[in-house]
Every structure is written in structure tokens, then in C-alpha cells.
## 1
Amino acid sequence: MLRHEPRPGKLVAGVVLVLTGVLYAGDVGGAWEIPWFVAIPLVTGGLCLAGAVAFLTGRLRRRRTAGRTATD
């Protein structure tokens, strides 16, 4: 089985979008009342956070591979 590289930025984006969907599903089901404009800062903030996590992950990977030599 081939292993893949973990992508924490995609994980963060997925969690935020699922959370937004759950909030609005609860609103539709009548469990609670969510204003329509809550999705805008939630999704925007979540995608910005996911971008920052992906950027930091990429920097760490490049830094780790740059320190290795051909004999390692």
C-alpha cells in the first residue's frame, strides 16, 4: 500500500466546511437559529487558516529536505 503525504491544510479546510454544513443543517432541522451571514466569516477565516497551515507545512518540508545530503 502506498503511503501519502499528510496535508494538514486540507484537513483544516475540510473540518471548517463540514462544521459550516453541520451548523446550517441544524438550522434547517430547527435545532437552533443561525443567521445567514455567519457562513461568510466562518468559511473565509477557515480557508485563511488552512492556507496558513499549508504554507507552514510546505516551509517545514522544504527546510527538512534541504538539510539532507545525497548520502542520507
## 2
Amino acid sequence: MSTVLSNFETWKHFLHDRVDQAKGMGLNEDTIANLAYEIGSFLGEKVDPKNEQERAIKELWDVGDEQERKTIAGLMVKLVQNS
């Protein structure tokens, strides 16, 4: 996982591939956003950011409440879908 997280573009490609896999399995957008929230929660608690972009996202995550964190997760999904 640390290799994937060391470069933000690599992380976005990894996340994009996982979103595509989830869609291929028939998961809807809400389910994917909920999974992204769970992943974000795990990363926020267990993984030290490896670059400036991840550090900025973590700082936003840390100050956000649950709804704001869900918004961040949803925006990350949108970001990788559009890249």
C-alpha cells in the first residue's frame, strides 16, 4: 500500500481502478461512496500521508465531521472517475 500512496497520481489511478471494479460488480454510486468513506476512515487512522496532497486531504478529514468526511470521500470518487 505504501508504494501506491507514495505518489498522488499513482493513488488516483489505483482508486480509479477500484471504482471501476466496484461498478463492474454492480455496486451503485451510494455504495461506492460509502466504501470510499470507510477506506478514508481507515487511512485517516492508520496511514501517514506520503505527499503534500494526501497531507492536505488528511488535514481536511481530521477537522471534518462525519457528513463532511462523506463529502470528501464522494469527491475523491468523482475526482478519479473524471481523470
